[in-house]
C-alpha cells in the first residue's frame, strides 16, 4: 500500500472526530492485545511534519477515497456506515450473542461474484482488523480474527453488556480499492439493556496507573494537530513501544450513527524524528459537527492499553474548544488476536 497516498486520506478521516470542542473520558481498563492495532477505515498514515501538512491539504481537497467531499468546507466521508461498498459485502454469520457469555463471531467478506474473498493486502501486520462497539459507545473491542482457507473469518468475543452493537471490518482486498474499505454490520447482544450516556467533561483519562492527556484544538476544514501525552505515576513515559509500526493508534466513532474514523499518528518509529513518548500527535481535519468517542491504543511494558475520550466537534471561535465529556463506566478493554 502506498503510505504517502494514504496519509492525506487518513488525516482527514479522523479529523471529523475532532473539530470544535474536546472532551476526554476516563480511561478504559487494561487490554490483552499482544502486538496489533486497528488498521484503517477511511485511512492514511502520517510519516512526519511534511507529510502532516500534505495530509491536511490532501484531505481537504480530495476527500478520503470513500466518497468524501471536496474543498476546505467539505470533509471526507466516514466508513462503516454501509454493509456493501465497491462490490464488497460484509456477510455476518453471527448476528446475535448473549451478554457476558463467551461466543464466536463469524463472518465473511464477499466479492461482487458472491464468493468469499480470500486474498487481502496486509496492513500493519494483519489482513483484516475488526472493531466491535456498542451503540451507546460504552463498550469497545479491537479484535483480529483468523481466516480459514474458504474465506470465513472467526474470533472469540465476550461482551459485558446487552444492547445494539456495530461490527466494523477494516481491510484492503487484493485488486480492490487502493485505500481499503471499512464495512459495518449490526450485532444484537441479548440481555438486560440499559444504554449508557456519554459522561462528563475532562481532558485526562487514566488507565492502569497511566494518565493520558489530550491537548489541541481543531476547526472544520483546516488541518490541525492534536496531541496525546502519556504519563505513569506522575512521570512522562518516554519509552512507548511500537504497536504495529506506530507509537499510538486512534479510532473514532461518531455518536448517533457510529461512523467509523481511524488515523495513525504523525511520524513512526525509526524515522529519525519521532520520539517514543510521552507525546503522540495526530493531524486531523474536522468536516462536521457532532459528538465522537475516541479510543487511543498505546503499548508500554509489553501491554496494549486503551484510553477513551469523548469530544464534540463544532466549538467556539478561533478554534477554542471546550472539554466535553468523559465516561466513568466505559468498557473499552478489548484487544484479542
Based on the model shown, name its key terms.
337 residues; mainly beta; 7-stranded mixed sheet; 5-stranded antiparallel sheet; 2 helices; 21 strands; 36% strand; globular; disordered N terminus
Structure description:
- This protein has 337 residues and is mainly β.
- 8% of the residues lie in helices and 36% in strands.
- It has 2 helices and 21 strands.
- It has helices spanning 3-15, 49-62; strands spanning 84-85, 88-92, 96-98, 103-110, 120-121, 128-134, 140-143, 146-147, 152-157, 163-173, 181-190, 204-207, 210-215, 224-232, 235-236, 249-254, 260-263, 279-284, 290-300, 303-313, 335-336.
- The strands form 4 sheets. Strands 3, 5, 6, 7, 10, 11 and 21 form a 7-stranded mixed sheet that branches. A 5-stranded antiparallel sheet has the order 1-2-4-9-8, with no helix packed on it. Strands 12, 13, 14, 15 and 18 form a 5-stranded antiparallel sheet that branches.
- Helix 1 (3-15) packs across helix 2 (49-62).
- The longest helix has 14 residues, at 49-62.
- It starts with a helix and ends with a strand.
- Mean pLDDT is 75; it is low at 1-75 and 316-329.
Number of extended strands: 21
Rg result: 18 Å
Structure annotation, total helices = 2
**Class per helix and strand makeup:** mainly beta
Query: What value does the average pLDDT take?
Result: 75
Kindly estimate the percentage of residues that lie in beta strands according to DSSP. 35-45%
Distance between the termini: 23 Å
Percentage of residues assigned to helices: under 10%
**Biggest sheet details:** 7 strands, mixed
Spans where pLDDT lies below 50 across 5 or more residues: 1-75, 316-329
- Order of SSEs: HHEEEEEEEEEEEEEEEEEEEEE
| Gross geometry | globular
Amino acid at each position: 500500500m502506498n503510505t504517502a497516498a494514504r496519509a492525506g486520506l487518513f488525516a482527514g478521516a479522523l479529523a471529523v472526530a475532532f473539530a470544535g470542542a474536546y472532551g476526554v473520558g476516563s480511561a478504559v481498563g487494561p487490554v490483552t492485545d499482544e502486538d496489533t492495532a486497528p488498521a484503517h477505515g477511511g485511512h492514511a498514515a502520517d510519516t512526519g511534519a511534511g507529510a502532516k501538512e500534505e495530509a491536511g491539504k490532501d484531505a481537504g481537497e480530495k476527500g478520503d477515497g470513500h466518497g468524501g467531499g471536496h474543498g476546505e468546507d467539505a470533509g471526507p466521508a466516514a466508513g462503516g456506515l454501509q454493509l456493501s461498498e465497491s462490490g464488497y459485502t460484509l456477510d455476518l454469520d453471527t448476528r446475535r450473542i448473549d451478554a457476558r457469555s463467551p461466543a464466536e463471531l463469524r463472518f465473511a467478506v464477499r466479492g461482487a461474484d458472491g464468493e468469499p474473498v480470500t486474498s487481502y493486502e496486509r496492513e500493519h501486520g494483519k489482513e483484516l482488523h475488526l472493531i466491535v462497539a456498542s451503540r451507546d459507545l460504552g463498550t469497545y473491542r479491537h479484535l483480529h480474527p483468523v481466516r480459514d482457507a474458504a474465506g470465513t473469518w472467526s474470533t472469540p468475543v465476550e461482551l459485558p453488556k446487552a444492547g445494539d452493537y456495530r461490527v466494523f471490518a477494516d481491510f484492503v482486498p487484493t485488486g480492490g480499492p487502493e485505500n481499503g474499505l471499512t464495512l459495518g454490520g449490526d450485532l444484537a447482544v441479548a440481555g438486560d439493556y440499559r444504554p449508557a450516556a456519554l459522561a462528563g467533561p475532562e481532558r485526562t483519562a487514566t488507565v492502569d496507573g497511566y494518565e493520558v492527556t489530550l491537548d489541541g484544538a481543531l476547526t472544520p476544514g483546516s488541518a490541525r494537530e492534536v496531541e496525546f501525552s502519556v504519563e505513569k505515576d506522575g512521570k512522562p513515559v518516554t519509552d512507548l513501544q511500537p504497536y504495529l509500526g506506530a507509537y499510538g493508534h486512534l479510532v473514532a466513532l461518531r455518536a448517533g450513527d457510529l461512523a467509523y474514523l481511524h488515523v495513525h499518528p504523525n511520524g513512526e518509529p525509526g524515522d529519525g524524528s519521532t520520539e517514543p513518548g510521552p507525546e503522540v500527535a495526530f493531524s486531523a481535519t474536522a468536516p462536521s459537527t457532532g459528538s465522537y468517542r475516541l479510543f487511543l491504543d498505546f503499548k508500554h511494558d509489553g501491554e496494549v492499553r486503551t484510553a477513551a475520550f469523548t469530544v464534540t466537534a463544532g466549538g467556539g471561535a478561533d478554534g477554542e474548544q471546550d472539554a466535553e465529556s468523559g465516561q466513568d463506566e466505559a468498557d473499552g478493554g478489548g484487544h484479542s488476536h
